[in-house]
Amino acid sequence: MISLRNKMLCTVILCLAAFQSLNALDTNPYKLSGKRKPLMTRQNSLELGDYKRTKRQLTQPMQEFQDFITNSKTQCANGMGFSADELQKSLLYEDQPTRKEKCLIECILKRMEVMDKDNTLSTAAIGRIANIVGNNNPLITSIAMATADNCKKFINAEDSCERAHQINICIATEMKMRKIKLIY
Questions:
Q1: Which has the closest alpha carbon to 161: 82, 97, 112, 69?
Q2: What's the rounded mean pLDDT across residues 151-170?
Q3: Distance from C-alpha of 104 to C-alpha of 97, rounded to nearest angstrom
């Protein structure tokens, strides 16, 4: 009698476990398969047929300033005898620029008036640029000028091209940290 009762109890438990497993398969097939459940499926895939992913556009003041930087780079490069291939190289984040590239950076920074006649970083010019790029936001301007003052502490080279490179490193670091998308 006891063994019959044990057999019945085992059978009931097995049936419940099997039922629960089948029920789990019906409710969440992705959980047991190890695959991720898709976030959403489109009802009509043609609705977004004309969708194209585009790059985020620069604001008009940023675009105008980027154009000014590009023109300055072109004029400096032409005056220094750079080839068209060399001109395509971005100097902002260049780790090991050549002497010629450092002098090109000097020319660009001087045309932008970021580097003054004394070969130092011009806080006033940084403030003007921040006003243009930041739509006259006083907070952005004050942060940019404070950052420029901080950068001045690290610029200690004697050679003007090397000083331009040190200014460039500081500018690139700050722009990268603040996710500003200008290049030269």
A1: 97
A2: 90
A3: 10
Name the 3-class secondary structure at 149. helix
pLDDT at residue number 133: 80
Give pTM, 2 decimals.
0.65
pLDDT at residue 1, as a whole number: 55
**At residue 107, does pLDDT exceed 90?**
yes
Task: Report in angstroms the alpha-carbon separations of 156 from 167, 170, 177.
Answer: 10, 12, 23
Whole-angstrom CA distances from 153 to 93, 146, 148, 177 are 20, 12, 9, 19
Torsion of CA 55, 61, 63, 68, to 10 degrees: -160
CB count in 10 Å sphere of residue 173: 14
List, in sequence order, the alpha helices (H) in the chain. 2-27, 29-33, 60-80, 84-87, 99-111, 123-133, 138-152, 160-177
